Amino acid sequence: MTNAEGAQPLDRAAVTDLVVRELAQILETEPSAIEEDVPFSDLGADSLALIELVEAMEEDLSRQVGSFHIDDEDLEDLVSVRDAVDYVVAKLNLG
User: Fold this and answer.
1) Distances from the Cα of 56 to the Cα of 1, 25, 40, 95, angstroms
2) What are the boundaries of each domain within the chain?
3) Please, how many CA atoms are within 13 Å of residue 22, restricted to the half-sphere of its CB?
4) Which residues contact 64 (CB under 8 A, 6 or more apart)?
5) Are 90 and 17 in contact (CB under 8 A)?
6) Which class does domain 12-91 fall in?
7) Measured between alpha carbons, how far is 37 from 44 in angstroms, rounded to an integer?
8) How many helices (H) and strands (E) does the chain have?
9) Contact indicator for 70, 87 with CB cutoff of 8 Å
10) DSSP assignment of 26-78, as one string?
11) Which residues does 73 contact at the CB level (< 8 Å), separation at least 6?
């Protein structure tokens, strides 16, 4: 899937990079300090940080693929980077 700006295709690796990059910025840490399977809470992300992450992901993905929204009822299932990536990949049918 190519993004709306014609840049590189959006795939699992790009989604992972997006989630890690945004979370690192929110938590004011290095992306290398964020592991995919570690729960957000163990990374120091509170509920406000998770809301910021969701908003950042929605904004970035909407720019790339058109309208993108994470359903409120799905938020409780997103407890790690891997969960967030799996959710986006499934929602965008990336594979």
Assistant:
1) 20, 10, 16, 22
2) 12-91
3) 23
4) 3, 4, 5, 7, 10
5) no
6) mainly alpha
7) 14
8) 3, 0
9) yes
10) HHTS-GGG--TTSBGGGGT--HHHHHHHHHHHHHHHHHHHS-----GGGGGG-
11) none
Q: Which residues, at least 6 apart from 65, have a Cβ–Cβ distance to it below 8 Å?
A: 1, 3, 4, 10, 92
pLDDT digit string (tens) for 35-79?
Answer: 999 999 999 999 999 999 999 999 999 999 989 999 989 998 999
What Cα–Cα distance (Å) separates residue 64 from each residue in 1, 23, 38, 50, 93?
Answer: 10, 18, 27, 21, 14
Record the tokens describing residue 15, joined without a space.
Answer: 């989604």
pLDDT tens digits for 10-33? 899 999 999 999 999 999 999 999
Measured between alpha carbons, how far is 68 from 94 in angstroms, rounded to an integer? 14
Which residue bears the tokens 């997103």?
78
Q: Helix-strand-coil percent breakdown of the chain, rounded to 5?
A: 60, 5, 35
